[in-house]
């Protein structure tokens, strides 16, 4: 029987969460259409044995790849050649799916042919409490022309996350997709170049993916982000390099998409550096010079980015980067901006 959906699960020391993750995939109807590829990235805990127990019980569903540690991207690169499903989706081992929504998705996509499957996602805390939910203004439960919605800013196309997407496997093979290895945060790449292959899409407006926030040691924790600044910088350089290489061959809409995705990741690094009290100013200056060298358009565009509606924080920093007083000023405004965003986000729930 043809597999409809391959789910690649990069796994490193996730024994606390892996059972919940894998249990969430055990749909009552349509399980035979799933392929679950657990890539054990050299875990030192019981992650591998947990995955093997599922493989023994469901040998036609679960595939195990056991490899030496190579970080997140290496897991995706190990899983892709093995995948047999018509579509491919990534699920982190500390996250999970909504089982009923997964079952509905499998039922709905049986018999359709699109480049992209879209679903919503929720962020949850350790207790399972929903913190936020993504949602998009796309046509529901029908095949639609995806690039046309790039012109609809309400659709927030540049901010689609890896949690939202599953690609047709043929598309990924065609572009010879390979994720950057040896660094964290490369899940961003999953919604970069692969998205340029999309012409048609199907949207199930329900939160399939449950994204856990607040786990100790999580890579999106602010302190962890600062420790992993090297990975974030290398990722942003990689995105710009990919943009520089392929943008001339893309339609204007996809050029714009990649441009703004790169800008988002670059601006995130400026914000982290400037918001951190003990920031390495010379490292930030070096990063800024590298962005300028890689792409003048992206460099110039960042000067117009604002916080608190008016403050062009990157331009202000560039004009005053050798003045010590500028750092506490920008740090205060960035903290204020974060507080305001958190407040308005809570009011919209």
From TrEMBL:
Q: Which GO terms describe its molecular function?
A: hexosyltransferase activity
CDD domains in the record? Glyco_tranf_GTA_type
Q: Could you name the domain of life of the organism this protein comes from? A: Bacteria
Q: What Pfam families does this protein's entry cite?
A: Glycos_transf_2
Q: Give the EC number(s) under which this enzyme is classified.
A: 2.4.-.-
Broad EC category: transferase
Annotated Gene3D superfamilies: Spore Coat Polysaccharide Biosynthesis Protein SpsA, Chain A
Q: Which residues form the Glycosyltransferase 2-like domain?
A: 6-171
Record protein name field: Glycosyltransferase, group 2 family protein
């Amino acid at each position: 029987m043809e597999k409809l959906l391959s789910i690649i699960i990069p796994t490193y020391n996730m024994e606390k969460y892996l059972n919940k993750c894998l249990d969430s995939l055990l749909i009552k109807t349509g399980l035979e259409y799933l392929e679950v590829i657990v890539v054990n990235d050299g875990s030192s805990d019981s992650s591998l044995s947990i995955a093997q127990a599922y493989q023994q019980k469901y040998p036609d569903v679960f595939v195990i790849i056991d490899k030496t540690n190579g970080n997140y991207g290496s897991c995706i690169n190990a899983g892709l050649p093995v995948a047999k499903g018509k579509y491919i989706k990534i699920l982190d081992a500390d996250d999970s799916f909504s089982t009923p929504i997964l079952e509905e998705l499998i039922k709905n996509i049986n018999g359709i042919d699109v480049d992209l499957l879209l679903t919503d996602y929720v962020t949850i805390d350790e207790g399972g409490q929903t913190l936020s939910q993504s949602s998009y203004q796309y046509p529901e439960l029908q095949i639609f022309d995806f690039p046309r919605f790039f012109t609809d800013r309400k659709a927030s196309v540049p901010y689609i996350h890896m949690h939202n997407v599953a690609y047709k496997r043929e598309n990924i093979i065609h572009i010879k997709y390979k994720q950057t290895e040896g660094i964290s945060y490369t899940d961003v790449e999953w919604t970069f170049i692969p998205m340029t292959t999309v012409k048609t899409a199907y949207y199930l407006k329900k939160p399939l993916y449950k994204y856990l926030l607040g786990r100790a040691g999580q890579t999106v924790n602010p302190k962890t982000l600062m420790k992993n600044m090297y990975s974030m910088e290398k990722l942003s350089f990689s995105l710009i390099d990919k943009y520089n290489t392929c943008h001339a061959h893309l339609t204007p809409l996809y050029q714009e998409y990649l441009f703004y995705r790169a800008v988002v990741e670059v601006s995130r690094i400026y914000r982290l550096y400037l918001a951190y009290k003990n920031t390495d100013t010379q490292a930030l200056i070096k990063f800024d010079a590298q962005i300028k060298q890689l792409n003048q358009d992206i460099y110039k565009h960042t000067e117009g980015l604002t916080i608190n509606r008016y403050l062009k924080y990157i331009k202000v920093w560039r004009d005053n980067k050798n003045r010590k007083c500028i750092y506490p000023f920008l740090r205060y405004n960035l903290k204020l901006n974060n507080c305001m965003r958190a407040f308005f986000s809570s009011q919209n729930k």
